[in-house]
Amino acid sequence: MPADQVRILGEVPGHELRFEALSDKEARAGMEARMPVAYVDAFFRFFADGTMDESGVQPSLGDVTGCPRRTFAQWARAHADAFGP
């Protein structure tokens, strides 16, 4: 969830971050000001409506890289220098 990821990214350098979601109407208006409507429609079909999914099943990251999978929090801690002041 985006709100959890924002919170975790704030915890790494010791900051409190807050996620403030936009309504679909607000998000759509902002996106349509920057990109083609067809792309915005596809974004909403995939992320909001759940009616479009063109992704196939892929091997896990561990299978591809040979490294064990990590949680988002583990990844954020490993890259803490990228998030600090």
List keywords for this structure.
mainly alpha; flat; 0% strand; 85 residues; 52% helix
Largest sheet: none
Please state the overall shape, judged from the principal axes of the Cα atoms: flat
Gyration radius from CA atoms, angstroms: 17 Å
β-sheet strand percentage: under 5%
> How many strands in all?
0
Low-confidence stretches: none
* Number of helices in the DSSP assignment: 5
Kindly state the mean pLDDT as a whole number?
A: 85
The portion of residues assigned to helices is: 40-55%
Cα distance, first to last residue?
25 Å
| Domain module count | 1
Which structural category do the helix and sheet elements fall into? mainly alpha
| Helix/strand order | HHHHH
Q: Could you describe the 3D structure shown?
A:
With 85 residues, this protein is an all-alpha fold. The chain has one domain (2-82). It has 5 helices and no strands. Helix 2 (24-32) packs antiparallel against helix 3 (37-49). The two termini are 25 Å apart.
In short:
By secondary structure, this protein is mostly helical. It is built from five helices and no strands.
List the helices and strands and how they pair.
Elements: H1 2-11, H2 24-32, H3 37-49, H4 61-65, H5 72-78
Helix pairs in contact: 2-3
